[in-house]
Design brief:
966 residues, 26 strands, seven-stranded parallel beta sheet, 38 helices
Length: 966
């Protein structure tokens, strides 16, 4: 495989057998790892090039009018291809055009080796976010000037292939050999390439010099036939000391001034840094709260620079007091951003050294013992996607230092594999495991214990409270960023969840078929201890009998639940799911069968668990089994524990009623798979936060851009249980944004719009669609439209698409849940396309940061009230009513105001940004409570009036130069 031809075809479509033709050939020859020749030509296709192909490739009918035909150029191309391996990015596409062209020209089909750089990239670059050629080229700094033109694509693919070849050559022999066992059935001939690589490495072995061998041991830790990247030395905490006086330090104000002045390290380390009054006020407030041992709520407007404003004083206080500082964010992505960006900057800026680490939930880390076992499973019978996922993990082990799943980009079947190989408590051998000293989770816990600054997420923070502080190291001070999400995180993680798919997946994992863990355990144990063969056989036989009927009962149970829920469910979320609240008492009369089937299912599961447990305990106690049997036994004991937890959940959800919880089901009626999600949430999470968190800890700093309603913190204080603490234990601070909203932003509220109606109200829908089209045209695209309902988004998307098609200029619409479910991908596409429009639901109301002219207008279709039929809202509203409180004013309105503030905050993200917000919901000016929304916003210019008048303000306002920029 030393002579290759990298090929890319541009074509009139995707189907050569239906008449689509090649319009451009790009080819790059590689000999012995060097590019030796390039070939490219346009081709006359003998038909018109469709407009969308011209838009994609830039190749027009005029450009190919005088180009040679395929018949004229093919002989030259085939001379290049002769005796070479065919390489392409998504090779099956280009290969089908090659074979059809060969056939039409009277040649034999190509029967040489084929390599696909998409397959190779997925295998060797498991940490990439995307395997599209353009994004790979960008990530790997490969020059790619003209994407979707064959010459540029072929050259970029050739350079990508050489990069992949380099990765392969650097992999240790043991990884190459393991990969080879997995890739034999891949669509392209990767196994041939790996075999060649293996032979080259084997021939080099006798000649390996001491220096080369030493380098190999520095890179890899090779153990039990797996190669793992060597990891950094353990962290050594610099703050925490077992004894001694506290650090004698200058006053905080003095230290801050020294860091922030023109010659200070902050100015040196952060290019473009500008001192901000609000940021420094927050720094002083955070330090003082920690020093005085009180809690602090800080609302910091957009542009304050709150990450630096809480990290810098927090780290200085922790350093002076030799305490560990815990920082919690809402999402893992923000956790990573803080660690890699802000923390890294402060490590360069502060006058003392400090260490930092992140810690995530245990299920985020790979268990090496389980993965080793997964590799021992028979390759035959497993899907190509599953083999690819295992291959990705093998390669990843040579690249990762953390074993954290967040680094990976795996296929859907990879998620199933991850469930099998992730670390968990119930199937852990702890110190008896041969992998213990290399365990990613225990090393992460060790780093967390030793770090001066520990970054976690809200989910882990709440899980630690649940586990009575057994997950995180003991801490006294913590900073909770995006604190407005804390109640939701607590609701989710203190609640319970179960899906019908989870049950079926558990039954799959408990398969008694040959090759499964149970059958393998029985076979290995019988081979080691023939005396227990009869007992094992009896238990295995019973498990087999029970297994078939269990699956049947589980499917029947799923069908009954789905039928009951789908008949009653209504849309209350934007995830495309419909929801129905229920009580266990609902399953009476003709619906009693749900309880009956649940009981039968539990009876069958109880019997199966009994036999499985007895089988697992069959090992004679006086004997020490081989590791392979101990390993399988541990996994099966873990399975038994999960089985028991599943039984407890089934009992909790369908046979008893806990009055402290609200129960509901969700169904996806449009999905092909009929599955039901069962959830239960605590009605009151304030007590669960207040007692173990706010009462016990010295100082918690809670910050967000949206904590107040009408400039008051009383709502979040009541939701967190902070109102139950002595008043002197809690301080609040509200800091305005440094942006000039009066000049930068215009808020338009049309007074003649129909009142928010139902989606089937055609007059209301028409007004929304026409209003959105008016804004998009006036803004030349560059518009984000926020919805509270996914079905409304779909209706508006379709109608806008039709109306915008009539405009002279082309517009591109990106709909969440229509064009993609991936928010990051949609935002990226929105940024790269001219005249684009982004339509999003709840996840787009916050966390979307689009600075500059890419976003000029923001539309809020209706105020973001939680639907009154949402089960958690209903349950909590009933509790408030029972206490004599008004649920709308105490819960619904504050929640909506905070989300509204988040939504509006998507627009002005920088001091040079300029934009227009349009709110189509007339309740914001007509209702008694509407001023709660407006009074909670920054000081925009606000205009109301007829839509015909207001829409004329958009284009002139956007074309004005911001005063901040003049």
């Amino acid at each position: 495989m030393n002579r290759l031809l990298v090929v890319d075809f541009e074509t009139t479509g995707s189907h050569p057998r239906q008449g689509d033709s090649i319009i451009q050939i790009g080819a790059v020859a590689i000999d012995d790892g060097q590019i030796t020749e390039c070939f490219s030509t346009l081709i006359h296709p003998g038909q018109d090039i469709p407009p969308f192909i011209t838009q994609l490739t830039g190749i027009t009918n005029e450009m190919v009018a005088d180009a040679p035909t395929l018949e004229e150029v093919f002989p030259q191309f085939l001379r290049l291809l002769d005796g070479r391996v065919f390489v392409a990015h998504n090779a099956s596409f280009d290969l089908q055009f090659l074979q059809e062209a060969l056939l039409s020209q009277g040649y034999y089909a190509f029967d040489g080796y084929v390599l696909d750089t998409v397959e190779l990239s997925r295998l060797l670059l498991p940490m990439q976010n995307s395997y599209r050629l353009g994004e790979l080229a960008s990530e790997l700094a490969i020059e790619h000037d003209n994407p979707h033109q064959a010459d540029s694509d072929a050259l970029a693919t050739a350079q990508l292939f050489l990069h992949l070849l380099d990765i392969l050559q650097q992999l240790p022999l043991v990884t190459i050999q393991r990969l080879q066992m997995l890739v034999s059935s891949f669509r392209s001939d990767i196994h041939v390439l790996l075999r060649q690589m293996e032979m080259e490495k084997l021939t080099e072995l006798p000649e390996l010099g001491a220096e080369s061998a030493e380098e190999n041991t520095q890179l890899w830790d090779i153990y039990r036939q797996l190669a793992i990247k060597k990891r950094k030395e353990k962290l050594k905490a610099s703050f925490q000391r077992p004894e001694g006086d506290l650090v004698r330090a200058k006053a905080f104000g003095e230290q801050l001034e020294k860091l922030m002045d023109e010659q200070g390290q902050i100015q040196v380390s952060m290019s473009g840094f500008q001192r901000r009054e609000a940021q420094e006020a927050m720094m002083h407030a955070v330090f003082d709260a920690m020093q005085d041992g009180v809690h602090l709520l800080v609302e910091a407007g957009t542009g304050t620079g709150k990450s630096l404003a809480y990290l810098l004083p927090g780290i200085i206080w922790a350093h002076q007091n030799r305490e560990q500082l815990v920082v919690s964010t809402n999402t893992i992505q923000l956790q990573e951003q803080l660690f890699h960006k802000e923390i890294a900057t402060l490590q360069q800026s502060l006058p003392f050294a400090f260490t930092a680490s992140t810690l995530k939930g245990r299920g985020n880390y790979l268990c090496l013992r389980k993965f080793e076992q997964a590799l021992e499973e028979p390759v035959e019978g497993s899907s190509q996607e599953m083999r690819l996922a295992k291959g990705q993990l093998l390669t990843w082990l040579t690249q990762t230092e953390t074993g954290d799943v967040e680094e990976l980009s795996m296929p859907p079947s990879g998620q199933l594999l991850w469930q099998q190989v992730k670390s968990d408590t119930s199937s852990c051998l702890n110190r008896a495991c041969p992998w213990f000293s290399r365990c990613y989770y225990f090393q992460a816990k060790e780093r967390a214990k030793e770090a001066d600054v520990l970054i976690v997420n809200h989910a882990l923070l709440i899980s630690d409270l649940q586990a009575e502080n057994r997950i995180l190291p003991p801490y006294e001070v913590a900073i909770i960023d995006e604190a407005h999400h804390l109640e939701d995180a607590a609701t989710q993680h203190l609640g319970k969840q179960l899906t019908t798919t989870q049950l079926l997946f558990l039954l799959d994992r408990a398969s008694v078929e040959d090759g499964g863990a149970i059958a393998r355990f029985a076979a290995e144990l019988e081979s080691w201890q023939p005396a227990v063969a009869q007992e094992l056989s009896a238990h295995l036989s019973e498990c087999k009998k029970l297994s078939a009927s269990l699956r049947e009962k589980a499917q029947q149970w799923t069908q009954f639940l789905f039928a009951w829920a789908s008949q009653r469910a209504e849309e209350t979320t934007d995830a495309g799911r419909e929801t129905v609240r229920y009580r266990v008492a609902s399953f009476t009369g003709k619906h009693e069968k749900i309880r009956k089937v649940t009981k039968k299912l539990l009876d069958g599961m109880t019997a199966f668990a009994l036999h499985l447990e007895q089988m697992v305990q069959s090992i004679p106690q006086e004997e020490k089994p081989p590791f392979s049997i101990r390993s399988l036994q541990t996994d099966l004991l873990g399975l038994v524990k999960e089985w028991q937890q599943m039984m407890e959940l089934l009992h909790f959800f369908l046979l008893v009623q806990d009055e402290e919880y609200v129960y509901w089901m969700e169904v996806e009626s449009r999905a092909a798979r009929k599955q039901v999600h069962l959830s239960a949430a605590l009605l009151n999470v304030a007590d669960s936060l207040q007692e173990p968190l706010f009462s016990q800890k010295r100082s918690l700093i809670m910050t967000s851009a949206t904590l107040t309603v009408k400039n008051s913190f009383s709502y979040v204080m009541s939701r967190f249980g902070l109102d139950k603490l002595p008043a002197e234990r809690v301080r609040t601070l509200s800091l305005p944004s440094p942006f000039h909203y009066e000049e930068q932003g215009l808020l338009l509220i049309p007074s003649d719009f129909p009142a928010p109606g139902k989606e089937n109200d055609q007059a209301y829908l028409d007004a929304i669609v026409q209003g959105c089209v008016d804004i998009v045209v006036a803004s030349k695209g560059r518009t984000l439209i926020l919805f509270t309902s996914h079905s409304m988004l779909r209706l508006v998307y379709q109608a806008m698409k039709e109306r915008l098609a009539e405009e002279a200029e082309p517009y591109t619409l990106f709909g969440h849940g229509i064009d993609s479910n991936n928010r990051s991908k949609l935002v990226r596409l929105f940024r790269t396309m001219e005249r684009s429009v982004l339509l999003g639901t709840s996840s787009f109301w916050e966390g979307v940061d689009i600075q500059g002219e890419w976003l000029s207008s923001l539309v809020i279709v209706r105020l973001p009230f939680t639907p009154p039929n949402h089960p958690v809202y209903q349950g909590r509203a009933e509790s408030l009513k029972a206490e004599g409180k008004n649920a709308f004013m105490s819960l619904s309105l504050p929640q909506a105001v905070i989300l509204f503030k988040q939504g509006v905050g998507r627009l002005i993200r920088h001091h040079l940004d300029r934009g227009v917000v349009v709110v189509f919901d007339t309740r914001v000016v007509e209702s008694r409570y509407g001023r709660s929304f407006l009074q909670s916003l920054p000081p925009f210019q606000v205009e109301t009036g007829s839509w015909a008048t207001l829409r004329e303000r958009i284009a002139p306002f956007l074309s004005m130069q911001s005063l901040s920029d003049s």
